[in-house]
Design goal:
The complex is a heterodimer of chains A (168) and B (110). Chain A is of the alpha+beta class. Chain A contains five helices and three strands, in the order αααααβββ. In chain A, strands 1-2 form a two-stranded antiparallel ribbon. The termini of chain A are far apart. In chain B, strands 1-2 form a two-stranded parallel sheet. Chain B has a two-stranded antiparallel ribbon with strand order 3-4. Chain B starts with 6 loop residues before the first helix and ends with a helix. The chains are: A alpha+beta (168), B alpha+beta (110). Chains A and B meet through strand 1 and strand 3 of A and strand 1, helix 2, strand 2, helix 3 and strand 3 of B.
């Protein structure tokens, strides 16, 4: 291949312009150009414009959930902070969509779903205050029906009725 | 053990009616021989009550009775926990309607 020199510009400039227009993803070169307007569309309705999908995130502008993890590309980028190109963004063994469903953070490998499906959603700022009504209960560790050791505080975020009983 | 059989239906009905994020949690503090339950007890109990979607937990470290006002003298003990893990109210017995009303009242007051 020949090295680039300015003397080559007259020959290659038209081709460069054509690429810019046909590619249509240089948002700043707008000016009412139809190709650029198309590029600002969100063809798959996932919350990301086609330009950003092609040039920025590398996602498929015609596929709302590029990595097939159950979350739209837009939700991954703007809501969950996860990778729209990886079904398991934090590499913890659980797909991003399943993590969101169980209340875990799909971008944090320290948070994952228990095997039974509940999230590890410990809010982190709880302090146990006692065992009476009005107190914050201590963070009990127990074994669930799927065999996981569950921290009670991981179930925070919704109301619960503890049903304390015996097998006899 | 049968006292927990209807909890799943009650929970689903309550959530459907109120839209409140809510779940029961069964905690087994003794097995059939009055001993500390092992890890398998939760799975066995879960199966016996119809495999509900909520957690069924074996209290293998014996922490539950000391962590609530419930003393284990009659079955079952019931305690409402808020989303912030505050013990709102504890009582004994099978009737859930007053407890669910208390949950709804608390949620609506926030």
């Amino acid at each position: 291949m020949k090295a680039f020199s300015c003397s080559m510009l007259p020959a290659i400039l038209p081709a460069m312009l054509a690429v810019a227009v046909i590619g249509g993803c240089d948002k700043d070169s707008g000016g009412g150009d139809a190709a650029v307007d198309d590029c600002l569309d969100d063809t798959d309705g996932d919350g990301l414009i086609d330009c950003d999908e092609i040039d920025g995130f590398g996602t498929d502008p015609e596929l709302a959930d590029t990595d097939g993890d159950g979350l739209s590309d837009g939700d991954e980028v703007y809501t969950h902070g996860s990778d729209p190109l990886s079904a398991d963004s934090d590499g913890d063994g659980t797909d991003d969509g399943a993590e969101v469903d169980c209340g875990s953070d799909p971008a944090d490998s320290a948070e994952a779903c228990y095997a039974c499906g509940w999230g590890r959603d410990d809010p982190g700022d709880l302090v146990a205050t006692g065992a009476s009504e009005g107190d914050v209960i201590e963070n009990l560790a127990m074994i669930d029906q799927c065999g996981d050791e569950v921290d009670l505080w991981d179930l925070a975020g919704e109301y619960h009725i503890l049903f304390l009983t015996a097998s006899w | 053990m049968t006292e927990a059989v209807g909890l799943e239906a009650e929970s689903q009905e309550f959530v459907a009616e109120t839209g409140i994020d809510f779940s029961f949690v069964v905690i087994i503090f003794e097995d059939v021989t009055w001993q500390v339950p092992d890890a398998e007890e939760a799975a066995d109990y879960h199966e016996a009550i119809g495999e509900p979607a909520f957690p069924v937990l074996s209290d293998i470290y014996e922490g539950a009775l000391g962590a609530t006002p419930y003393d284990g003298s009659s079955l079952p003990g019931t305690c409402i926990l808020t989303p912030e893990m505050e013990i709102l109210e504890c009582t004994t017995g099978h009737g859930m309607s007053s407890l669910l009303e208390a949950v709804q009242e608390h949620a609506e007051s926030r």
